[in-house]
Structure prediction request, 443 residues.
Amino acid sequence: MASAFCFNFSLSASFMYSDIDTPRFSEALTSSIFRYSGNTIWNRTVFIFDFMCNLLCMCGLLCYIIRMKIMKAYKFKFEPTKAQAAQLAIEFGCARWVWNRALNERDYAYKNWGVGLNSNDLSRHITQYKKTDYPWLCDATAGVLNQKLIDQDRAFDNFFKGRAKFPKFKKKSHAQSIRYQLDQRHVLNNYRAGELIKLPKLGELKVKWSQVPGGIPKMVTVSKSASGKYFVGFMCEVEQGLMPMTGKVVGIDVGIKDVVVTSDGFHSGAPKYTYYYQRRLRKAQRVLSRKKKGSNGWKKQRIVVARIHETITNSRKDFLHKLTTKLVSENDVICVEDLNVSGMLKNRKLSKAVADVGIFELNRQIAYKAQWYGKEVVKISRWFPSTKTCSSCGEIKPMKLSERVYECGCGLSLDRDLNAAINIKMAGLAMSGAIYQPEKVAA
Prediction:
């Protein structure tokens, strides 16, 4: 009996440190019930203890113990020295030239000979250029130029699979980025989390570590924003603990008046950062338009405009990160609509407001955070009439955008966004096979 108890307890522990498999838990519970169904006090005690161990694993109350490996990206700001800034200008310039040259050669080869070139073919061309007409390419790191060709391969792959548009030529005034490959044989000499990072021809970077990364990176991306700020980013494999289960299911309606309205009555509001900074942006752009293009004054004013755009983007991302973390941490199942964001942006009257919400970024953050923390996301069809359907009786009626309250003949009078969120929750539960139980919500 003792040996059987130890075996089953070890089985429970193995479940805690591995991916949760519901059928295996059911078998473990069933076997424990039949194994300890005797009448002795020892059997009953062992059965209760073993049953509770399996039950705790199933309910996810030990989720902090269960950890999963994920790929997590980090991005930090750094201040280059004058020598590093000069070398980075060379790296950015050579990488941009290689990208544009390779893109031109690919286009020429395909149009004239019907031949598709890849990074290996173009890498041999770059090697010949260094020896003949363009010796200044040797001033840049060879790995950076090769990585730029590999990035172009990925860009064409995304284009042919319909995930992106045709690759474009790069400009000096736009944001710049290059990638370095860290030699894993000597990575400890070049990288220490939160302390040190060294790159070829640049040396040690003065990084502003906002947190201590986990894991060891293989690739490092150095970028320069349009406002002139330098960043270093990389991706590491880290262990991520799961969040505790709350047993809650929520439906989310995304809109312009409120970025998020949940089925339990939460209204997030809409900061509308584009409208908030609109006056400053309009004034800065007016000053820029009066400058002579290419002059020193024009370059300085262009940075002013770029910094305003950067402030808007960062403010929106900060708001969305806080909002999505709240939604994922408080709910186990999140039901969202699969909206056609690109189609919504074609509406001339609402495109600016829709873009200011950041619907695509909102859904992206909910998806990956739910995957990180062991939560579930249920996507509802975009053709589901969530706004037009009564959440009480199911009647469907047309509604204008100006109508902010849903009133039904059954007596329901509710905010239209809240009514839509409740319908999205019911649709999500129907897709998962659960039964919806009405809850009291604040109108």
